[in-house]
Here is the input.
Amino acid sequence: ALHGKPETIMTDGGSGFYSWRGISSFSLFLEELGVDQIVSKVPRINGKVESINQKFEKEVLNVRSFSSLKHLEEEHTIWIGLYNFRRPHQGLPNPTANF
Here is the structure.
């Protein structure tokens, strides 16, 4: 709602995005919205997505318990906000560090 719908979404060939019987319900949903779907055929192309998934798993899923799916969604939203806007980029030098 804040940024509008994406023009394109990249997915891998995982079971959440693939159907043995033709087009998946996720792909149909994207089609209805007019969002293009790119299916990555090379694993390293999805490396950034895999990296953030691993960080979320390590920093949230492996250390927290959730009372409901709604609770998990709320924690996910908080973590994404922290990850994108509050914590320093891991590849940049820490400006407060004394060298």
